[in-house]
């Protein structure tokens, strides 16, 4: 399973890269807005740190505007993937960009029908948001299972990015379903590595070692 980091914060990206856990990066307008730098500058900086797909999202609501922004962003670096919202205008933009060999990530997917349409339009990636579904009492992971089955049935090349991840269980469940990618906030990447019994075991090993050398 590939791990993308879901942040625009360079420090978090660097720390996760040092852990060897970053295959790509996803950003969105909310994540970009948290940083104190112009959008394009942030994306260029991320490209210097990570050699993998880096999603940058368009702001336009019409297909023409999305395509224009998409072309501009794609020109920054070959690793840029254009993040497009799951709307009918977005689907048109995905088709145009796919014809130009520009990779897209269809975002804000909340149903299997939306994921099917993203794949048909030629999206390179589809991002279903599990956490936001869980937040409204719908099981987000059921959606991942449905999308994986549909993509499997027809051999779509579109890769599923499990997004809106809130905890380590989301990541493990996504892996059990065979999802291609999880895009994970830094806090959850750190949580994935931790176990209290590991900490306790280390403490005990070191304490025993101390006793042995003193004897
Ligand atoms: C995905 O690409 C989005 O950036 C992200 O996963 C959204 O997560 P949130 O629901 O925690 O905002």
TrEMBL record:
SUPFAM superfamilies: Aldolase. It comes from the Bacteria. Its main location: cytoplasm. GO terms for molecular function: aldehyde-lyase activity; transaldolase activity. Pfam families: TAL_FSA. It catalyses: D-sedoheptulose 7-phosphate + D-glyceraldehyde 3-phosphate = D-erythrose 4-phosphate + beta-D-fructose 6-phosphate. GO terms for cellular component: cytoplasm. GO terms for biological process: carbohydrate metabolic process; ketone catabolic process; pentose-phosphate shunt. Keywords: Cytoplasm, Pentose shunt, Schiff base, Transferase. Pathway: Carbohydrate degradation; pentose phosphate pathway; D-glyceraldehyde 3-phosphate and beta-D-fructose 6-phosphate from D-ribose 5-phosphate and D-xylulose 5-phosphate (non-oxidative stage): step 2/3. The active site is at residue 83. Gene3D superfamilies: Aldolase class I. PROSITE patterns: TRANSALDOLASE_1, TRANSALDOLASE_2. It is found in: Cytoplasm. Its EC number is 2.2.1.2. Transaldolase is important for the balance of metabolites in the pentose-phosphate pathway. PANTHER family: FRUCTOSE-6-PHOSPHATE ALDOLASE 1-RELATED, TRANSALDOLASE. HAMAP family: Transaldolase_3b (MF_00494). Belongs to the transaldolase family. Type 3B subfamily. This is Probable transaldolase. It comes from Thiovibrio frasassiensis.
């Amino acid at each position: 399973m590939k791990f993308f980091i879901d942040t625009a914060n360079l420090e978090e990206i660097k720390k996760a890269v040092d852990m060897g856990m970053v295959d790509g990066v996803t950003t969105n307008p909310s994540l970009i807005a948290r940083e104190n730098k112009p959008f394009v500058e942030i994306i260029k900086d991320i490209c210097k740190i990570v050699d993998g797909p880096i999603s940058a999202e368009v702001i336009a609501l019409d297909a023409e505007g999305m395509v224009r922004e998409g072309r501009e962003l794609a020109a920054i670096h070959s690793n840029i993937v254009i993040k497009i919202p799951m709307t009918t205008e977005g689907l048109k933009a995905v088709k145009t960009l796919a014809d130009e060999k520009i990779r897209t990530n269809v975002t804000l997917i909340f149903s299997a029908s939306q994921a099917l349409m993203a794949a048909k339009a030629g999206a390179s990636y589809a991002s279903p948001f599990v956490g936001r579904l869980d937040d409204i009492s719908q099981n987000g992971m059921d959606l991942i299972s449905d999308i994986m089955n549909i993509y499997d049935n027809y051999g779509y090349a579109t890769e599923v990015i499990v997004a809106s991840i809130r905890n380590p269980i989301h990541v493990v469940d996504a892996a059990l379903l065979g999802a291609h990618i999880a895009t994970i906030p830094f806090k959850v990447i750190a949580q994935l590595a931790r176990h209290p019994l590991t900490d306790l075991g280390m403490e005990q090993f070191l304490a025993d070692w101390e006793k042995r050398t003193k004897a």
